[in-house]
Specification:
434 Repressor (Amino-terminal Domain)
């Protein structure tokens, strides 16, 4: 027999199964197949004759796309099982660490806000890079692409918060990927773009563009990683929602837990942005040291 806490879980599971039947057209047999149990076993669970196994609840969370805490809310016995689960502990530590890193690094949670802060920092670096036209122009290219990226993502942040995660991902990830590819190509061809941009400037200014640029190759490598993360997010979003692409849900359900990039996308991008800022600031230090050495 089930304890009072377990009966609460049973009631919650019954509601979830009813919702799966209503929204997705699942039959009882279909639900049992996805949970990996027999129909009689499910009846025993729902009638309170036996207690749910943790593995069954994990599968139900993957199918319904609810967290385990939402399913077993208020059940102390299952809470203890979850707390002792090493996987659960590691995931919680990683999640809290990621959230803390965002707070410390940018003190903002919205993508528009941290990109705006990124532009402000880049603007400061731009004005400090007057001694190196090449570094300054690369910084300018990143500023321009980031401003465009902010403009493209504003409608998403204003109007798409109530859409499903799948739909949101289909909009926001391609935007970031497109702009990161544009930035990567711009950095790669910065000398050509700079010559066009500075075509009315004196020859000495143009010659300065062809001096050694310490950040060109590292910045290209960094933005290649930006593009890889964006592409991985797009691919993961599709794999996690294969049933929307017409794939049988019994096969698609095994990929429901593929959400690492989805969960930590903002944290990864913030870390890459911090690397970009660090690289640009380091370049300023190198330029300053080089100038001092030349003077001495």
């Amino acid at each position: 027999m089930q304890s009072p806490e377990e009966l609460e879980v049973t009631q919650r599971v019954r509601e979830i199964i009813d919702e799966l039947k209503a929204r997705r057209g699942y039959t009882k047999k279909r639900v049992c197949d996805l949970l990996g149990i027999g129909q009689s076993t499910l009846d025993d669970y729902l009638n309170g004759k036996s207690s749910f196994k943790l593995d069954t609840l994990i599968k139900l969370s993957q199918i319904s796309r609810l967290s385990l805490s939402e399913i077993v809310e208020g059940t102390r016995d299952y809470d203890r099982q979850l707390q002792t689960s090493q996987e659960f502990k590691l995931k919680e530590i990683a999640r809290k660490g990621a959230e803390l890193s965002i707070i410390i690094l940018i003190a903002m949670s919205s993508g528009v806000y941290y990109l705006s802060l990124y532009v402000v920092m880049l603007a400061g670096i731009y004005f400090l890079s007057k001694k190196s036209r090449s570094s300054q122009f690369i910084t300018l290219l990143i500023i321009i692409s980031t401003i465009i990226e902010i403009g493209l993502t504003i409608p998403y942040h204003l109007f798409m918060r109530d859409y499903s995660g799948y739909t949101q991902g289909n909009v926001i990830f391609p935007i970031h990927l497109t702009m990161d590819i544009v930035t990567l190509i711009s950095i790669w061809s910065y000398q050509t773009l700079a010559c066009y941009f500075y075509k009315s400037r004196p020859l000495t200014v143009k010659l300065n563009l062809f001096e050694k640029c310490y950040i060109h190759a590292p910045m290209m490598s960094l933005y290649f990683v930006f593009c890889f993360v964006d592409l991985a997010a797009i691919v993961e979003n599709q794999i996690r929602n294969l049933e929307r692409l017409g794939i049988d849900e019994s096969f698609a359900s095994q990929f429901y837990h593929w959400q690492f990039i989805y969960d930590y996308y903002a944290s990864i991008k913030v870390a890459l942005i911090c690397c970009t800022v660090f690289l640009l600031i380091s370049n300023l230090s190198i330029l300053k040291a080089t100038q001092k050495h030349a003077v001495s």
